[in-house]
Amino acid sequence: APTDVRARIHRADVLISMGRKDEALRTIDQALRTATSPSLFINVATTYRKQGLDDLAERAYRAARVALKDSNLFQREIAEVSLARGDHLTAAREYAAFTTSKPQYLALVEMQLKEIATEADDPGAIALFLADRLRGQPDANQVRLYVTFALASNRARSAIDVLMSLPGKAPVTGSLLTL
Question: Is the pTM above the cut of 0.70?
Fold first, then answer.
């Protein structure tokens, strides 16, 4: 069995082309456990996304978080893969976390949440997640994300209740006047 990370990844590609996905997954897991460069994880995930193997791409991104000991890595990428797979709740979770680590992308995430609100099978679960997140972290960005989703998913009345239940110093700003 190859010990070089890149050789293992190549072996996994061959196994996938032979229809041996389970064995390929084990090979990828072994290879990525010893990888130390974010670029390797990106290359692996990009290769799998191009092949329509979003589950393997997500697996590579999540392996990077473990191997590189950084739970904030690849939040946007995991959100995009989750969205492509139709896992709207995971996408919303990753996007919300992404705005905490990279607040400059708030407008992009708001746009994605609007799309998720119209496509999700269970928008109520996402609204609950965002409301809980807001209660735990009542900052202006989380307020904006929650309100954006609430409006796009026709939950304005319940959004008012959630906002009214926040502590007095929560940053409920003028953007909420649309409720």
Answer: yes
